[in-house]
Every structure is written in C-alpha cells, then in structure tokens.
Amino acid sequence: MLNTNTDVMIVKQNLILNKVMIKKLIVLFFLLLINTLSIYSQNLPESDVYDLFESKAYNIDGYNINVEVLGEGDPVFFLPGGPGNSHDYMQGNFGQYYKTNTVVFFDWLGRGLSDNAKSASEYSVENDVELIEKLRIKLGFNKISLVGHSYGTVPAQAYAIKYINNVDKMVLINGFHSGAMWQANCDSYNHYAKTHFPEKWKQVDSLRTLGYVSSEEPLKTVYGNFPTKYIYYHNTSLKQNSPTYNHKNWSTDVYVAIIGRDGDFDVSGSMIDQDYRKQLKDITAKTLIVAGRYDGVSTPEFAVQYKHFMPQAQFEMFEQSGHNPYLEEPQKFYTLFETFMEINN
Q: Is the pLDDT of residue 18 over 80?
C-alpha cells in the first residue's frame, strides 16, 4: 500500500522508463530482423541470371566444350549431376555468385552444348575428372574450388584426391562416395517404388523376367513413368531452377555409358569402379558435405558414413530437404554456403 506522494511519483517514473525501454527494444528487434533478412536474401538465385552468361567453346582433345565464365575473384567450378545433366540448373542456383567470385559453369563431353563423343566409351568418370583439370589449365587458374551436386560430387572427389594441391575448397551436395553407394541407393529407390506402387511394379517385374534392361524399351518408359518426385523433394511442389528457353538438359547416352546398360538395377560402367572411402581422409581441401534427411537418391543411411570416412570435413544434415537442399531450405543453405566459402557480400 502506498503511503506517500513520493512513492506514487517513483512508480509513475518506473512505468515511464519501462515503456521507453520496451519501445527501444521493439525498434531494435525490427532493425535486427530487417538486417538479418537483408543478409539472407542478397545472394539468393536470380531468375534472369542466365542472360548474364555468354557461352564460349573451348577445344579440348578435338572436341568443343561449352564453358561459361563470369565474375572476378577466387574461381569456383560448379559440377552438375546426372551424369547426363547439363550445367543449366547449377547456373540457375549458383550463378548469382559472379558478384563475389569467378564462377565457372561448363558442359562435360556429350552434355548440354558440348560436342558428343565419337564413341560412347569416352564417357567416363575418369574423363570427366581430366576435363576439370584441362579447363583449369586452359583458363589459367592456380587453385580452384569445386561445388558438386549428386553425380557432380563423384568427379569432384576424384579430382580432389588426384590433384590434391589444386583444390582450395570443396562442397559436396547430396553426393556419393563410391559405386557401391550408388548401387545401394538404386536398391533403396527400387524397394520404395515396389512397395509403394505395386500395381506399376508388376509391369517392371514382367519385363525384367523377359530379359529387358533399364535402358531398353519398353522397360525404359515403364520405369521412367514412376512418380519419382517424392524421391528428390521433401516438398514436392517445388521445381528445379532452369532456363525457360529450349536447351538440352539431359543425355541418356552419357548416363547409360557411365552407369551401365542396366544401371537402374545393376550399376556398371565406370561408376561401379569408383571408391573413395579409403582416400577421403587424405583430402586436404577444406570440405563441406551436405545431405538431406528425406533424400531418396543419396539416402541418409549412406550419407552419414562421410563422418567416418572424412572426419576432417564439415557435415551438415538438412532436416527439411530431399535431394536439393538449396531449393527446400534456401536461406539456411546459402547462409551456410557463403560462410563456408568465405564469401564477403
């Protein structure tokens, strides 16, 4: 109970001070929020980024190889998946880094705008690795950083092992450490498809019994018509960033040559011979490994094995993502990516 006017005055003053402090805290909160959103958003993908790049053909071993370079600063090579994909989707998701780095997007032999090989035997992981090195020399770079997604992580790791002194940083996004891991994930996908779509899988079983392999019709079409988006995306409403103009974004010939004629069931080609597990611990390049909790292509069961095989790497599991964390959790991904790559905005 208040007994004096002095007590009343003190209470009023405290109330005024508290109101002022609350207002200041509210203003400070919104300033911090605006600043944080600004930091997050300034390097997100740009829909018109494709217009900024110019295609240039470099003659490598008698073939024209499509290369698109832009920017200044430390060079970063972006390696797409597949192994039949063109460079376009990587450019759509990472092209914005021309503002801070020299970004290099290219199409491997037989993919995108690059020439097709005279023989399918020229499509291999080993030749993809050598193309990275030949382009590094051609473009006059000393050390380079590598950012690989899915299949792109395979030649990235092989390059970092073989050309250990040429790699500064490496980011492996939803990748594979071996042909055995690729096979295991094919088995995982096929089990999921069989148990979730048994009606469709009966057609697959019938054609397999008749001796058809996954690259042959009609099995190729039947197998290709499974609703597979749930394997790649946790949020199936998302779409990959890609140009609106017509472009060759996929090469079946390359995929079959590297993964094998029956590669969706029995991996062969040069992929099955890849195994970096024993050598990953020797890589000296600063490495970030990204995985998605709901990835049905590079499943967490095998992705977490990187913690054992490459303990010196930074490993990050994206809990709300499938095979494309940069699409499903973009702010978290790009903030992590820029911090790791030491990109100054």
A: no
